[in-house]
Amino acid sequence: MIDFVAATKLLKSLKYKLFLGHLQQEAAEFLSFTAATMYGKISRGELPVMKRGKRLYISRAELLEYLKDGREKSNAEIERNANVYLLNNKMELNNGK
Fold first, then answer.
1. Among 6-10, 27-31, 39-43, 85-89, the least confident range
2. Can you give the CATH number for the domain in which 44 is found?
3. Which of 24, 39, 50, 97 supports an S-S bond with 57, CB 3.0-4.6 Å?
4. pLDDT band at residue 79, thresholds of 50, 70 and 90?
5. Model-level pTM greater than 0.85?
6. 18, containing H or E segment
7. Overall domain count for the chain
């Protein structure tokens, strides 16, 4: 499990943009990936990158979004989303009489 406080501190210590080479290794460590996994995910388009010449850039914000996208919802969040969905659909059904 990734410690988001530690991850945020690490991202703040990095430059705004990370590029292939030394800083890409730091991004791989932040995501708990090996360098090979990082290269694979980049080549398959699974990680958002910007390319300028031979360098690939990754923004800190996009790395955090990538981590958050893989997060599983808690039971309370799932129940809350289900209740909102049911309320919205109930209202639509009542309005469409």
1. 6-10
2. 1.10.10
3. 50
4. very high
5. no
6. strand 17-19
7. 1
